[in-house]
Write a structure and sequence with these properties.
globular, 18 strands, FAD/NAD(P)-binding domain, Rossmann fold, binds NADP nicotinamide-adenine-dinucleotide phosphate, seven-stranded mixed beta sheet, 2 domains, alpha/beta, 485 residues, six-stranded parallel beta sheet
Length: 485
């Protein structure tokens, strides 16, 4: 065991960050910005491609949100940073390996699974999680080969958060508009022949309790070839909701936009329609004999004020059916446990105290930390992860003093590379990713699109291997000249 002080030039504080989305990058940024300690960051990611939900979650028609990747690129070029893509924790490298090689480990793995509704028929053919659809149209390699039968005329989207709006908007958008984005080619092709004409978005509570934001709601008024329908009766508010409208600008703005849509009447130009319905909960998905979804049975709700002041939906016993061949359940994400790392099953997160990992009894897991959605749950926009990551980074810096001397001396910067090579892991560096990035961008340029994504891991690796070979061949003559000289 060594006794050098951690965080010096001779013995930097070595940090592994697991995940490469916004929470991971904001944690790296916060660690680099502090001036107390010399910190080195190695970032590990399961996919070869970095940026997490910015690449695979943010809607393809929201390119301006993706501009945050320029900041992440800058962090990646910091000499204190290294990227190891295509490395799966628990398979290629284990928690114990990381704790042996690094002083501190941060989990920033997000919340990749979706919540279940727990109603009969949820798994019928035609009933999908919105998460899968989002990953599919964004070209996430795990979902590229999923199939969505878009031959039904009516689709139901359950939930009124921003993901529900993304799904509804993509279904309602014209193929021409989608064709100018970086939507995955397979999704573009399927959406070109989509027969979906009506998209019904269901909120279990009222418009004043909607989780979506007004910027996203407003976009429906600007969709080419699509209109919005809202029943004015759905916008009649109870006293408590009226109070919310008065007190909260964001709620007021949502309600004003919905009123505007309601007063516009039903769109009649033969295009697609997005209908918003409030105070209804799906209670059953009804299928035909072959197990294909045919309809969604819904129950009308009323709101009840709870002790904590929140308004919860309660069924009224009034039922109705919506004929639909497609359902997208968009009721929120949830975390997935990492091997050997504590997990709070009910909350779907890694239990922690201000970013310090603890088990369910509150016992600390020294040197292990958490950032982002797997720390606090799937809420907020990309920027919300910045203060969240800063809190984790502050805890790490504070704790660094108490771990000095506990770790092996002479830690080699090459330790992890050697381990990955020994285990035959074809890891992807940031330079490798930049070759793939360049490839996608140039394919996009040829088609007048921001990029054309490569959507299978083996194809990504082929592009990277070809790029490495070109780079090495270009370096070769120089080397030979050097030798001859
Ligand atoms: P979300 O904002 O938490 O919304 C989930 C929705 O599902 C809520 O309307 C919720 O209703 C509803 N819901 C939950 N359980 C339900 C059930 N059993 N039956 C019916 N409805 C149910 O989650 P999200 O849409 O997945 O978004 C996750 C985060 O990413 C959010 O912070 C979101 O703002 C963010 N995001 C942002 C953007 C953007 O900025 N453009 C895009 C996508 C996502 P209750 O309110 O009644 O629980």
């Amino acid at each position: 065991m060594g006794s050098s002080k951690l965080g010096t030039d001779e013995r930097p504080l070595w940090v592994a960050i697991i995940g490469a989305g916004p929470a991971a990058y904001f944690t790296a940024e916060a660690l680099f910005k502090q001036e107390e300690l010399n910190v080195r960051v190695d970032m590990f990611n399961r996919l070869p491609t970095p940026y997490g939900l910015v690449r695979d979650g943010v809607a393809p028609d929201h390119q301006s949100i993706k501009a945050v990747t320029r900041k992440f690129e800058k962090i990646s070029h910091d000499p204190r940073f290294r990227y190891f893509g295509n490395v799966t924790i628990g398979e290629d490298i284990h928690r114990d390996d990381l704790l042996e090689i690094y002083d501190q480990v941060v989990y920033a793995v997000g919340t990749p699974a979706d919540k279940q509704m727990g109603i009969p028929g949820e798994d019928l053919e035609g009933s999908h999680s919105a998460t899968e659809f989002v990953w599919w149209y964004n070209g996430h390699p795990d979902f590229t080969d999923c199939e969505f039968d878009l031959s039904a005329e009516r689709a139901v989207v359950v939930g009124i958060g921003n993901v529900a709006l993304d799904v509804a908007r993509i279904l309602a958008s014209s193929p021409e508009a989608l064709g100018t984005t970086d939507i995955a080619d397979h999704a573009l092709e399927a959406l070109r022949s989509s027969r979906v004409r009506e998209i019904v978005v269901l909120g279990r509570r009222g418009p004043a309790q909607a989780a979506f934001t007004s910027v996203e709601l407003k976009e429906f008024g600007q969709l080419e070839g699509a209109g919005v329908a809202v029943d004015p009766a759905d916008l009649e508010l109870d006293e408590e909701s009226k109070r919310l409208v008065e007190e909260q600008r964001a709620v007021r703005r949502n309600c004003e936009l919905l009123e505007g849509y309601a007063s516009g009447g039903a769109p009649s130009d033969g295009g697609r329609t997005v209908e918003f319905r409030f105070l209804v909960s799906p209670v059953e998905m009804i299928g035909d004999e072959a197990g294909r979804l045919e309809a969604v049975r819904i129950e009308r709700n009323r709101l009840t004020k709870m002790e904590d002041g929140s308004m919860r939906p309660r069924g009224t016993g009034e039922y109705d059916e919506i004929e639909a061949g497609l359902v997208f359940r968009s009721i929120g994400y949830r975390g997935v446990p990492l091997p050997d790392v504590p997990f709070h099953d009910r909350w779907g997160i890694i239990p922690n105290e201000a970013g310090r990992v603890v088990d369910e009894d509150g016992t600390r897991y020294p040197r292990e930390y958490v950032s982002g959605w797997c720390k606090r749950g799937p809420s907020g926009v990309i920027g919300t992860n910045k203060p969240d990551a800063a809190e984790t980074a502050a805890a790490m810096i504070e704790d660094a003093a108490s771990i000095a001397g506990e770790l092996p001396e002479g830690r080699s910067a090459k330790a992890v590379e050697e381990l990955l090579v020994e285990r035959c892991v074809d890891y992807v560096t940031f330079e490798d990713w930049e070759m793939l990035d360049e490839f996608e961008l140039s394919r996009g340029e040829a088609e007048g699109r921001p990029r054309v994504k490569v959507c299978h891991v083996d194809e990504m690796l082929e592009v990277i291997h070809a790029g490495r070979a070109r780079r090495d061949a270009a370096a070769e003559p120089e080397r030979s000249v050097g030798v001859a000289d």
